[in-house]
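quick one, 371 residues, struct below
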Amino acid sequence: MKKIILSLVLATVSAAGYAQTEEPRAMSKLTQEQKEARMAEIRSAYAEAKQKMSKNGKNGQSPRDLWIEYNDVLEAQADITEWDGTSIYFDSDTLGGIEVNRPYFIVENWTAHQHTRYREMLINPKDSTLMFCYRRGETDAGFVVESRYYYDPEGLLIEEKHNTSNTWSSPEGEQKDAKRYIGLFKTMTQGVLITREGTMTDAPAAPKTATPLVGPRSKDQQKAYIRSLYAKAKKRIAEEEHEYQKRNVRIVLHDQGTLWPPMTTEYKFFFDTRVIDLPDQRRHDNYCYFISEHRQRMGFDSYVEYLFDTYSGDLLFYYCKCAEENEQWEWRRYYDQHGECFEETGVSADEEPLDKNDAQNMLGLFYKVMN
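---
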């Protein structure tokens, strides 16, 4: 399964398809003189981006980057695992009193079949278009493949360079992935895909599940069920913390910003794979069973947990602890089989509970990353 941004295992297969079919490719219509000028522009922008990245988070400045880490186990017995770490670097400015974040460089490292892969993407911060891509990787046969792609302002290929004719990538494929990276970045940093009702409009829906027929539970039974699932989730997370076979996604956003003090936001998504039987098919699906969110900035600290039902994917439990200046709040909410809160403990800082909307946004972000 190919995952947006984080998992590129099938890149070899798709690239081989490009190499074998030799489909017609849209090429830039720039003149030779214009191409040379564009290449010079790309090299200059690349050098400037590298210099800017070297200063990120230094000289007393807060870092501005988005880190996405993905771990999965493809086959536990065969010890086949995946890891992917992606950094997106950006600048911030304001337009009409609104803060706008602009990505300018993406760096990705990942492993596939126990081999290492590496990719760089140079992004034009003015319009978020791909200018240049470099990728390097080891094949299963043990040799190294290197590719470089240069694009004109319209996103059409100017030139490509490879160290072997057996390329495993394509300029179209790199463009497609760059758009996915940038789309996820905008969702994370600008909230452009969140509606007034608090739902993420472009995130894929959770996979349809075959919910087991469970009889109605009393409030005490539901609370016992929630506490049992919570304890199992926490135990599993603690055990995986020190194992290299993990199934989780970690996202860290360092946002210096221009309108607010610097904030660090960390999301952790813990998931597993289940086999479900539907009327028309039997399939494997990844499902998220626990999410945590931690936000910190000067004078403010909040920590949130979401626990989801294994089969239905519904929110079962919400916990929040936050502190702002000299005030502190802590509360818990328990949900029944119909999605209704049947018990709340502690004192909430919310004027209106948004647990379910926030939970759906978090799940939407998870599936946006995974698909």
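Helices lie at 11-21, 32-54, 171-190, 219-240, 355-370.
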